[in-house]
Amino acid sequence: MTSKTSSPLFFPESSLSAPQENDALESENSIPKALMQSNISSPLLYTSSPSKKLSSHPSVAYSYPSNRDGPEKPSLLSTTPRAMRRGDIHPRYLLSTPLQFTTGTQSSQLTSDLQMISTFDPVSENTGEMVRVIWGTNVSIQESMNTFKAFLKQFRKKYRMAFDGEINLDASGDALLYVNMLKQMYDLDLTNLNLDARDLECYPPTKKLHHQLQAYPQEIIPIMDQTIKEYMLDMLIDGRANETEISKVENNIYKVRPFGLSKTINIRDLNPNDIDKLVSIKGLVIRVSTIIPDMKQAFFRCDVCYHTVTVEIDRGRISEPTRCPREICSSDNSMQIVHNRSEFADKQIIKLQETPDVVPDGQTPHSVSLCVYDELVDFARAGDRIKVTGIFRSVPVRINPRQRTIKSLFKTYFDVVHIQKIDKRRIGIDPSILQAEISESISINTEVRKFTEEEEEKIKKLARSPDLYSILTKSIAPSIYEMDDVKKGILLQLFGGSNKEFLKGEAPRFRGEINILLCGDPSTSKSQFLQYVHKISPRGVYTSGKGSSAVGLTAYITRDQDTKQLVLESGALVLSDGGICCIDEFDKMSDSTRSVLHEVMEQQTISIAKAGIITTLNARTSILASANPIGSKYNPDLSVPQNIDLPPTLLSRFDLVYLILDKIDESNDRRLARHLVEMYMEDRVNESKSSLIPFEFLTSYISYAKQNIQPVLSNEAADELVKAYIEMRKLGEDVKASERRITATTRQLESMIRLSEAHAKMRLSNEVILEDVQEATRLMRSAIKDYATDSSGKIDMDLIYTGEGIVQRRAKGDLKRELLKLLEEMSAHGSSIKFVDLFKKFSEQSTVEINLNEFNDALRSLETNDSIQILGEGSKRIFRKIS
What interactions and quaternary structure are annotated (predicted)? Predict the structure, then answer.
């Protein structure tokens, strides 16, 4: 009886039938019956085969004599424990498939120069004798092990440097790269080796092994794993290590994780020729599943005699015993699985999608499923851009999970052996917002970028420059003319403030992300700013307001095609967690879409309660948005909320709001036109561009600051912040008015703190000083002066928080008082007043034009205050004064 799973993404299956025992007599060249055990799934998954020096150790089992010369019958193999096997490698062939012996002459093709750099001596070279290879391949186990071991011992950096075309080879090129790496693995107790496939390609003796690695990864990678263990054992014995250290290495599971293939294939270009080969792809992670328990060994118990037996899982297939193996019992169908005694490993399914830059015009992005195992679980998260090296798999689709019949249609997926975070042109992520702990394994690249001493010295040298602020500002979107304050605000947004969580009083998390809104006339480079920031920001997502929905920004529920379960798909804001979300045409968003941004911009979370899924997702992202005014032209007589049709509650959550207006100025227009013309004349040398920082170095500088600098406020800076806040509040004092204007709130104070911390980060300083606070205050006042000034030329923050300033409130109050006075006069002549008569009479008495909407608002306000009574609808309404 055979139990199978319904999804290939959980347990890859094979069309091969289970191995059958053969009672026939063994011929001279046949495989011994001991090798035909059904619980051995591959001839490559053998136990340790050390060199001669370990022959005295009784714990070592040999798969074949290490000094075998010629075609010799393999010695007996003990069962390889399933716990000692990799989860990401599923050999195609069962051990019951006989190994072929082919006759061939292996001639050496190395030149005299290659013989000088390597003493590689393949097995059976020029002997004309039979060579043992894996069935269906040209892979010789012993030859591959010897080749790879020689590579580990002899490969030097200079071979790779010469392969990459580097002319000046320094003394570091003589270092034995992998010898030092293996020593470091032993010292740090690491078991994963990061193998660059290009190193195999540039080393002539391993060119064949490099080809075999890509063509037969299921066979070559386990050989490499075994070779690593043998090399570690040889290294310990040469160093006269004790029995405890040797036993520790013998019990370790060493894994080689190849990466760096010479060719990266697009997801849409994968075809049947790539099946069962080592392939490299890259894309954007859009969904990560929960950790799935992947059964490695099943535990069965007899219900009659309680006899127990363990069965190893072979590519998702459980060979369930149909009869109790105990001769005294031998009960049929009495074996039941005991789950809590079975062994499981970690597994996870990742949905990888093509990045927008590689999707052809007019087509939708393709996606593929990735299966990750063991140490790679929880390494990638939604929004990451990764480069994956793995084995491309295909399995048939079942018509019904309960039937053995399968379709001719095959599903494809990846068994991942290596994951690498890519796109170093983007800035790094603030480590304070990373949820998962950074792995110390050298086999995978972490999300935090590593900098060499030379790079650090170059960064610190720039930080010591007296005109650092000016240089970085000019390097932000250099194609855009002037707008220095806008560039400075965006520059500080890229650095960001410090995220803080205080334990006292269970205070909430204080965000360090800075939100900026660009609004103004069309064709003023607003979208160009967004495109530039999207290109440089980590995990950034660019979206348009008209093409975005509420679920597209947050998350939506969908049914997974493989598990048939409801899953949560991340939207733009969740994918931008730790980066910057750029939203163009912000004013054209629907009200339901904009409503989800209130929680994101302040609490930096998204609460979901859909289809039985109740959760809170992190959206620790900065928002950079652009909005056009109503009618495509900004009206200076109206407030910002009235110009761009944004609710005041949302507008107040932006730290900086910049008005970018198209003003007619001949001298300024001439300079702008000359700047644009020079952009199209690439052969002209512009002296101003010589001081710009290269794009890659700018990203490195910002990444270094975000990862290593977490500034704190000094006493001097704290006093200056308090002083600046009080001074901004005093701007609203007016001795002639009974009501004071609000010119600053605590949100402006928090914004100044974030800007001050970002300015200190830019200087690579761990302390916020007076200079940082002064620049933050200047930027804040400059922005407020533009977007929070009423028609009288005075700052009034109520324009942002309520949509109307003190001038509008006074006018509405005067309108209600005059209207109430008129109602009293007209009520003396009759019991009720018609709407038409009231509006006509009021317009005749007023010295200014009366807006009908404002008139109706005043009437509703008087009704709410129980000053008047309204009967009827529309123009037929009548009014009565309530005495």
Answer: Component of the MCM2-7 complex.
